[in-house]
Design brief:
By secondary structure, the protein is mainly α. It has one domain: Up-down Bundle (Growth Hormone, Chain: A), CATH 1.20.1250.20. The protein contains 18 helices and no strands. Helix 3 runs antiparallel to helix 7, helix 13 packs antiparallel against helix 18 and helix 17 packs antiparallel against helix 18. The two termini are 25 Å apart.
Length: 510
């Protein structure tokens, strides 16, 4: 066999860290290909993150094409969030049961198929079902990708760099989705916002087939069915309750009922996890101070980030007259800063000092950026009033998100890697759902209050200024939420370096 053929031969490295027959050459080759593997996993993560926002810009075109009303429009977004958020913990445990590579490939195939169905949708119901299907397979795909990243990079410095790249995708992928959605909608058709996943999934599938582990994990815990049922129902109820609050208000009986049901059922889930030997979410995963604090930082970041994407998108398009493409381009500087800060901070600072002060300072810096945006007026300019705030927010998120993601899965054993990774994604997704509903309700109240107190203004000016008042109010709240994240990180997380990964958690070669 030629050298080239050997280099392209798929690797058979066990999820316990051993090669086929204990072949050390296999482990060495996997180590050489670790950056290629990172590219595969980054593509998978990008696809999941993109679909949280890429459809948003396409919604008006999809609505005109399929003929559904405004009240139904939110379910195109909510169907994805509901399925994704409520099934992530199950997806994480299935990753531990089936093996990481198998779960990743099933997730990629399923996501591609449901994306194709959504792109070919002939009515509203078909599109909603496809979006829910994307959420189902995304809930399997996301934890598999993150746990593979954890077990692929075992060197502390290299892991920090890898998580910097991965964290940058998690932090900036939503904004990239807005840009890509605008480009595809303007230049092609709204359906390509879904069809584009076929190309991304195909590339990631080839990479996974060639370079990832084919064997199953040696650790195969039993599935905690009561835990699966209660956490799925509980998370569904919470996400649905917040989604209902966005349209019906916080006092609506359905909102109160769903949220109360979610709290009760999740409390039952927590109680069950202390009583079962094969817990879906072992409490040892979240009770560690560094991991628990990291999960809270990811959750709070998810709430605050939607204050940027959702309301600033409206402000740029409706008040400054930006097109969908120029709106997406307006977020690119923030994405660039997130990428640079994530990679530099995790490679240079995290291995030396640990995540506590990085997450703390990053959250406070992001809060300062939101305060800057809260000064916007109806006549503000992008270059002097919007861009500086975005750059500061990007700096803060880049400094905090990647260390928090790495801290959230640090020191877990191999059998818990999947569920620990799923919990990261669950926190981010549920945080985003909470943020959307919470900030949307606050913004709507602010707009109403401004309108009633400025009735003397002319109608066009009143509408524009009321909209700006709603956005800036949301930005103030987002700033407060980021600041709370900084306090939580400083109080809950431990100082010092992250613990080394246990030897049993190594999936691919050293």
């Amino acid at each position: 066999m030629t050298t080239l053929t050997k280099e392209l031969e798929p690797e058979f490295v066990g999820e316990d860290g051993t090669g086929r027959g204990g072949d050390s050459a296999s482990a060495q080759r996997s180590h050489r290909l670790r950056w290629v593997i990172l590219g595969v996993l980054a593509l998978a993560q990008l696809m999941v993150v993109l679909d949280a926002t890429i459809v948003n810009i396409a919604l008006p075109h999809a609505q005109a094409d399929l003929g559904f009303d405004n009240a139904s429009r939110q379910w195109i977004v909510t169907a994805y969030a509901l399925a994704f958020g409520s099934l992530l913990l199950l997806g994480g445990r299935l990753t531990d049961l089936w093996g990481r590579r198998t779960s990743l490939m099933i997730g990629l195939v399923g996501f591609a198929v449901t994306s194709a169905i959504g792109g070919a949708a002939v009515n509203f119901e078909m599109l909603v079902a496809a979006r829910a299907g994307q959420g189902v397979f995304g809930a399997l795909l996301a934890p598999a990708a993150l746990s593979l990243l954890t077990t692929t990079f075992t060197d502390t410095k290299e892991r920090a760099r890898a998580f910097g790249i991965f964290g940058a995708i998690a932090g900036g992928g939503g904004a990239l989705g807005l840009l890509l959605g605008g480009m595809l909608t303007e230049w092609a058709d709204w359906r390509w916002c879904l069809y584009v996943n076929l190309a991304i999934a195909a590339i990631a599938m080839v990479g996974a087939w060639l370079f990832l582990d084919r064997s199953r994990s040696e650790h195969r815990p039993k599935l905690d069915l009561p835990g699966v049922f209660t956490v799925t129902v509980g998370l569904f109820a919470v996400v649905y309750g917040f989604a209902n609050a966005e349209t019906a208000g916080w006092g609506d009986w359905a909102t109160v009922t769903w949220l109360a049901t979610g709290v009760v059922v999740l409390s039952v889930f927590g109680w069950l996890q202390t009583r079962t030997e094969h817990a879906l979410l072992p409490l040892r995963v979240i009770l560690d101070r560094t991991r628990g604090g990291s999960y809270l930082v990811v959750f709070i970041s998810g709430i605050g980030m939607f204050g940027i994407f959702l309301f600033l998108t409206y402000y740029l398009q409706q008040n400054l007259g930006f097109t969908p493409i120029s709106t997406g381009l307006a977020f690119l500087p923030m994405i660039g800063v997130i990428i640079v800060m994530s990679t530099l901070a995790t490679a240079l600072v995290l291995p030396r000092f640990g995540p506590r002060w990085m997450a703390t300072s990053g959250m406070f810096i992001a809060a300062a950026g939101m305060v800057w945006l809260a000064q916007l007026t109806a006549t503000s300019a992008y270059s002097t009033d919007v861009l500086p705030g975005l750059l500061v927010i990007g700096f803060g998120l880049g400094l905090s998100m990647a260390p928090a993601m790495q801290g959230a899965i640090s020191g877990v054993s191999s059998e818990d890697a999947g569920v620990a990774s799923a919990t990261v994604n669950t926190m981010q997704q549920v945080g985003g759902s909470v943020g959307t509903a919470l900030l949307s309700t606050i913004a709507a109240s602010a707009a109403t209050s401004f309108t009633t107190s400025h009735v003397t203004l002319a109608a066009p000016a009143l509408a524009a200024q009321a909209a700006v008042a709603s956005y800036t109010t949301a930005f103030w709240w987002a700033a407060a939420i980021f600041a709370i994240g900084g306090v939580v990180a400083g109080v809950v997380m431990r100082s010092g370096k992250l613990p080394d990964t246990p030897e049993g958690a190594v999936a691919l070669g050293h």
